[in-house]
Amino acid sequence: MAKTIIEKIWDQHIVYEEEGKPDLLYIDLHLIHEVTSPQAFEGLRLAGRKVRRPDLCFATMDHNVPTKNLPIIQDPIAKKQISTLERNCEEFAIQLAHMEHPDQGIVHIIGPELGLTQPGKTIVCGDSHTSTHGAFGAIAFGIGTSEVEHVLSTQTLWQSKPKTMEIRISGQLGYGVAAKDVILAIIAKFGIDVGTGHIVEYTGEAIRNMTMEERMTICNMSIEAGAKAGLISPDETTIDYLRGRRYAPEGPAFEKAAQQWLDLATDEGATYDKVLEIEACEIEPFVTWGTNPSMGTGISKHIPRAEDYASESDKEALKKALAYMGLKEGAPIASIEIQHVFIGSCTNARLSDLRSAAKIVAGQKVHPTVTAIVVPGSRTVKQQAEAEGLDQIFIEAGFEWRESGCSMCLAMNDDVVPAGERCASTSNRNFEGRQGAGSRTHLMSPAMAAAAAIAGKFVDVRTLQPAHA
Amino acid sequence: MKPINIVESIIVPLNRKNVDTDQIISKEFLKRIERTGFGNYLFYHWRHHPDGTRNEDFVLNQPQYENAKVLVAHENFGCGSSREHAPWAIMDYGFQVVIAPSFADIFHNNCFKNGILPIRLTVKEVEELLAKGERAPYQIHINLAEQTVAGEDGVSYSFDIDPYYKQMLLNGWDEISLTFQYEEHIQNYEKQHA
Ligand code: SF4
Question: Shortest Cα distance from A341 to chain B (angstroms)?
Answer without folding.
Answer: 20
